Every structure is written in C-alpha cells, then in structure tokens.
C-alpha cells in the first residue's frame, strides 16, 4: 500500500511533473484528475475514460491547449475544474448519460463546444460565463436556459432537441457562418437583441424570434414550422441569399419594412393563417424566384423592380386582383420578371414554383391530393396562366 503512493510521489520528485502536463492523458478516476493539479497549463488532450464512475475535478489546471473530451461515459455524475479558463480546441461531452453537474466557474474561452446526449444535465455552473466560442453545438440536453453562455460573436451555433430549453437569449453581434435552432422547448424564445449581421440562419419550432437590429444577411435565412404569429426584422435591408417562411402555422404578420434586396429566392409557403403577404413594402430586387403559395388573398410588392427567377403565386383564395397587378411585369428579358410567371387562385393544393401546369391536370392519383385534382390548368403560349378551376364540394 505504501508503494502505491510512493511511486507517483517519486515520479514528481524526480522531475516528471512537466511530462505529466503534456501529451494525451486519459483520466479514469478522481486520483488521475487531481494528479494534474500542478499543471497550470496542460499541453495536449485530456479524455475521460468510458468506465469512469468517480466525480472528476480537474482542479488547478487553467488552460488545456488541446481538447477535453468525455465520450460514452455512462456513470460519471460530475465534471468540474475550479481554475480552467481556456480550452484551445474542443470541449466534447458526448453521451454522458447521468452527468448532472458541470461546474467550471472560470471557463470563458473554448474554440469548439460540442455537447450531445446529456439527458440529465439541467444547468451549467459557469460563473464567469463562456464568452468566446467559435463553434457551439448543444443537442439533446435537459438545459432550461443558457445562463453561463454569453457569446458576442460566433461562427457556428447549432442548438437542437433540448426539449426543456425555453429561452435562448444571447448578446451576439454577428454570426460568421451559420445559426440553427430546432426542436427545443415548445415555448422557446430566441432573442438576439444586438445581432447586426449573420451569414445563414435557420429557425425551426420557435415560439418567438427577436432580431431587432439585424441589418444584413450575407447568406440566407429561413423560418420553418415556428409557432409565432408575427416576425419582424425592422432593420434588415439586404440578404445575399434567400429568405423563406414555410409552414409557420400561426403566422399572420411578416414585417420587413426596410428590405430592398434579396440575392436568392423569396419563399412564403404554407403559412396557413397568413392572409396578406404585404410585409416587403420596399423590396426591389430578387436574385432568385418569388414563390408565394398558401391561403392568402392579398399580395403587395409595390416597389418590385427586378426578379431574376420565376414568379409564382398560388393560393386557395381568389387572387385575381394580385394577378392582374403582377401580370404586366412578366415577359422575360427586359421585363421586371425575367423567369416564368404563374399566378393562380382558388386552388385546392397551391404549390411551389414548377408545381403547376401539366403535372396537375390529370386526375391520376396525385399523392398530395386528398380529393381529386380539381384544378385544371391550361398552359397557353403567352405564359403559364389560365386556370379553369372547378372546385367541387368540401374537403
Ligand atoms: C450558407 O447556406 C448556403 C445554402 O445552404 C450554403 O451553400 C453556404 O455554404 C452556407 N454558408 C455558410 C458560411 O455556412
Ligand atoms: C419542427 O420543425 C420541423 C421542420 O422544420 C417539422 O418537421 C417538425 O414537425 C417541427 N416539430 C414540431 C414539434 O412542431
Ligand atoms: C436600426 O437602424 C438605424 C439606422 O441605421 C439605427 O439608428 C437603429 O439604432 C437600428 N435599430 C436597432 C434596433 O438596432
Ligand atoms: C457579412 O456582411 C457584413 C455586413 O455587410 C460584413 O461586415 C461581413 O464581413 C460579412 N461577413 C462575411 C463572412 O462575409
Ligand atoms: C403545411 O403546414 C401544415 C401545418 O401547418 C402541415 O401539416 C403540412 O404538412 C404542411 N405542408 C407542406 C407541403 O409543407
Ligand atoms: C405587423 O408587425 C409590425 C411590426 O411588429 C407592426 O408594426 C404592424 O402593425 C403589424 N401589422 C398588423 C396588421 O398587425
């Protein structure tokens, strides 16, 4: 027994301490962790062994120049580090099933945070708070908020399947590559009060999204299956890529009063309660297609000046007025609308660009139709206009 303790003590005494502070270390128990306490900087990677059952406290270490990883560690309850302020590479927690305490009071900078499969992690004890992270991915945890994560900039942020997470508020000023939120708490509010610009952003299943300062998108932005009734981006003027609103079942109001230019397509589809698509009063140029389909009766794009792609309006409602207004803008080169023009109302199954015409004339068992294909389309030489629609009966 004496020997067990003597050996590591001797090793330190003869100057092996430096060697222990670099390389790749696998921690199997609390003793292995405390053996690192003299390493103010650990130069290398630290991993937690899969059969670890102890609480692991990596105390004393201030910086890890590589990664800190716990992957498939089913019996570890607590992971902490009282002095750790920086991880130069990744902080990976992957499938650590009963981990419930994550206590890093000094941690502020991590290159990549990659946490997935932490079904017992309900809160973070990050007193200082993470403020510098390039890539943040948090999935399948029980976190209810992001207290302890206060990023002012990020390249990639991916937050998904955290079913208890109902608040994502962050002082982000920009998103260098992509932000994606999906399937978090049913009441999740996404608040980015300081966000000025973002490359790509995708919001799914959110109950509110607040982006009051967003002024430009380098790439694209999409809203899918959200629960909000209103989306406002008052300062957004330009988007390098497309903008999409799809299947937001409560959406009644889109408001992008400053938007002038969309580099890709503008899609507003299947937002069943949106009666009026009038949220783009200054929109002039669209690099891709304009594709609006759903149950609206009113469409207004008063400043429209240049649409490089197709123009497709399809609605269950009568949209004759809108069609009359836009039809003169069509006509290919030299016209406002360069691509194919489609404008049809009173449809049973309004669809996206290219979904009209021949494909819907037959009654031969379209899979998307609950009844017969009731709308008969005639593609004339002058365009894809013209609908002889006979809507029979109810649904
Ligand atoms: C942005 O999204 C587009 C379209 O999905 C993709 O091609 C592009 O690589 C993305 N850019 C970044 C920086 O993530
Ligand atoms: C979340 O959004 C996706 C599409 O983006 C959708 O398929 C899914 O049904 C939504 N989930 C819920 C619970 O609404
Ligand atoms: C919107 O833009 C204007 C003009 O650039 C600016 O003065 C204002 O502060 C911005 N609003 C927000 C909420 O950022
Ligand atoms: C995105 O656009 C903003 C504002 O125009 C610009 O400052 C930023 O450098 C662009 N980002 C990238 C990655 O191109
Ligand atoms: C349209 O949205 C409804 C719910 O809002 C959804 O059930 C349906 O699958 C969506 N259809 C398409 C084509 O996205
Ligand atoms: C739509 O939202 C905008 C911005 O929040 C608001 O100013 C406007 O009054 C709303 N329109 C309707 C019809 O509610």
UniProtKB/TrEMBL annotation:
Lineage: superkingdom: Eukaryota
Protein name stated in the entry: Cell wall protein Ecm33
């Amino acid at each position: 027994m004496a020997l067990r303790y003597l050996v590591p003590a001797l090793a330190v005494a003869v100057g092996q301490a430096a060697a222990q502070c670099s390389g790749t270390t696998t921690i199997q128990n609390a003793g292995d962790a405390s053996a690192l306490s003299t390493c103010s900087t650990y130069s290398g990677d630290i991993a937690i062994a899969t059969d670890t059952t102890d609480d692991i406290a990596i105390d004393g270490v201030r910086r890890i120049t590589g990664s800190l990883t716990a992957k498939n560690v089913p019996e570890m309850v607590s992971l902490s580090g009282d002095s750790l302020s920086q991880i130069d590479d990744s902080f990976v927690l992957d499938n650590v099933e009963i981990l419930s305490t994550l206590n890093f009071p000094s941690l502020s900078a991590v290159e990549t945070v990659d946490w997935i499969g932490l079904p017992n992690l309900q809160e973070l004890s990050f007193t200082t708070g993470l403020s510098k992270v390039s890539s943040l991915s948090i999935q399948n945890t029980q976190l209810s908020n992001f207290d302890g994560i206060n990023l002012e900039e990020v390249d990639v942020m991916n937050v998904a399947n955290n079913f208890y997470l109902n608040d994502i508020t962050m002082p982000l000023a920009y998103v260098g590559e992509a932000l994606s939120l999906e399937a978090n708490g049913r009441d999740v509010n996404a608040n980015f009060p300081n966000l000025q610009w973002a490359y790509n952003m995708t919001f799914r299943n959110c109950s509110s999204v607040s982006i009051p300062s967003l002024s430009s998108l380098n790439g694209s932005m999409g809203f899918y299956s959200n629960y909000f009734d209103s989306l406002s981006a008052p300062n957004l003027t330009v988007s390098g890529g497309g903008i999409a609103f799809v299947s937001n079942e409560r959406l009644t109001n889109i408001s992008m009063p400053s938007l002038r230019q969309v580099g890709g397509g503008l899609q507003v589809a299947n937002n069943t309660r949106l009666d009026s698509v009038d949220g783009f009063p200054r929109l002039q140029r669209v690099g891709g297609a304009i594709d609006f389909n759903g149950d609206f009766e009113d469409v207004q794009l008063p400043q429209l000046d240049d649409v490089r792609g197709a123009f497709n309006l399809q609605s269950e409602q009568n949209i004759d007025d809108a069609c009359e207004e836009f039809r003169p803008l069509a006509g290919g080169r030299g016209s406002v609308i360069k691509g194919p023009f489609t404008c049809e109302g009173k449809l049973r199954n309004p669809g996206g660009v290219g979904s009209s015409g021949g494909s819907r004339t037959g009654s031969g068992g379209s899979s998307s139709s609950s009844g017969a294909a009731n709308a008969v389309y005639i593609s004339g030489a002058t365009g894809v206009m013209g609908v002889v629609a006979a809507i029979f009966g109810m649904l």
